[in-house]
């Protein structure tokens, strides 16, 4: 697939749903702010670390939430500066997540995923500077906020910088930036930081239009009987493929991006459908959209001749 013309182009994403356990507290400029019930955990951690009294739990909790909010707001501002859509921010006990359109390319990815870390460094320096200028004893509430903006900020910074991946696939800023460095070393194109990297054009297989992925066992999903076949080509923009996967093939948000990258990296993709009629309708919709946009994308309904499920795995 041909890459996007601009690394800062926003592409289709699912809406920003309110997940269980979250409360929607604000909506600004089309973006939502959701807080999880576990947000009090930050105050508990800081209270335990500093041996503060229970009556300081509230300012410690509020201070820590503000630290995480500043981090995520800078991600949002960086996304807007890059021309990406900001869908919303979720804050939870020990961190947050800013949901935006996915950046394409190393520069945009580095800017987006380093913005929160930069914000925390600025906040930390500003807090130390203000504390040195105040002089004299600090009230308990003010002292609690200073603890949150220094110790809490440091804890949040380290948590964001350490490379880790959650069980649902979310990556820390440090994990994304590390992956960017690895992908640049191997000459791959970065897609959103949290997705598999796109191989170079020379490494991206393009099969003839008449090829059948069913004849390539390594590309046939386990149990595949019938579905839709999409072939890689050198002319269709990546954004169009993501749109087609999302709008016509039922692939939600992040999965649509992963599928598009897999098509580019492996030469094609087989998507199972429960019935032959559904596969034909979906393939026809994608083919019509590609024809209208004058893209050479090949998408067709396919099924195993014997009707037996595949025993190979992708």
Please describe what this structure looks like.
The protein is of the alpha+beta class and 314 residues long. It folds into two domains: 22-182, no CATH class; 202-303, Ribosomal Protein L30, Chain: A (2-Layer Sandwich). Helices cover 45% and strands 14% of the residues. It contains eight helices and seven strands, in the order E-E-H-H-E-E-H-H-H-E-H-H-E-H-E. A hairpin with a 2-residue loop joins strand 3 and strand 4. The longest helix is centred in the middle third of the chain and has 29 residues, at 106-134. The relative contact order is 0.12. Mean pLDDT is 82; it is low at 2-14.
Please describe the topology of this protein:
Layout: E1 22-28, E2 31-36, H1 41-50, H2 57-81, E3 86-92, E4 95-100, H3 106-134, H4 140-161, H5 173-185, E5 226-231, H6 238-247, H7 253-266, E6 268-272, H8 276-293, E7 298-303
Parallel strand pairs: 2-3
Antiparallel strand pairs: 1-2, 3-4, 5-6, 5-7
Helix pairs in contact: 1-2, 1-4, 2-3, 2-4, 3-4, 3-5, 6-7
């Amino acid at each position: 697939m041909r890459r996007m013309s601009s690394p800062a182009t926003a592409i289709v994403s699912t809406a920003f749903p309110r997940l269980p356990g979250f409360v929607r507290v604000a909506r600004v400029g089309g973006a939502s702010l959701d807080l999880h019930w576990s947000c009090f955990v930050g105050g508990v951690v800081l209270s335990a670390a500093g041996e503060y009294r229970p009556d300081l739990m509230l300012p410690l909790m509020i201070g820590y939430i503000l630290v995480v909010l500043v981090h995520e707001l800078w991600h949002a501002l960086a996304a807007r500066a890059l021309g990406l859509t900001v869908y919303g921010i979720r804050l939870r006990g020990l961190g947050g997540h800013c949901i935006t359109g996915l950046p394409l390319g190393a520069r945009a990815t580095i800017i987006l995923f380093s913005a929160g870390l930069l914000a925390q460094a600025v906040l930390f320096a500003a807090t130390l500077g203000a504390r040195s200028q105040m002089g004299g004893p600090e009230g308990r509430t003010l002292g609690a906020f200073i603890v949150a903006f220094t110790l809490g900020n440091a804890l949040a910074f380290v948590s964001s910088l350490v490379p880790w991946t959650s069980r649902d696939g979310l990556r820390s800023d440090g994990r994304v930036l590390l992956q960017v460095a690895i992908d640049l070393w191997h000459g791959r194109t970065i897609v959103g930081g949290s997705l598999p990297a796109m191989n170079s054009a020379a490494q991206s297989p393009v099969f003839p239009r008449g090829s059948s992925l069913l004849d390539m066992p390594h590309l046939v999903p386990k149990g595949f009987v019938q579905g839709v076949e999409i072939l890689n080509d050198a002319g269709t923009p990546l954004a169009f493929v993501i749109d087609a996967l999302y709008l016509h093939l039922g692939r939600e948000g992040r999965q649509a991006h992963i599928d598009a990258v897999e098509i580019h990296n492996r030469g094609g993709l087989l998507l199972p459908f429960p019935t032959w009629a559904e596969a034909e309708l979906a393939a026809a919709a994608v083919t019509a959209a590609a024809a209208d946009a004058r893209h050479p994308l090949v998408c067709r309904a396919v099924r195993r001749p014997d009707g037996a499920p595949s025993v190979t795995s992708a």
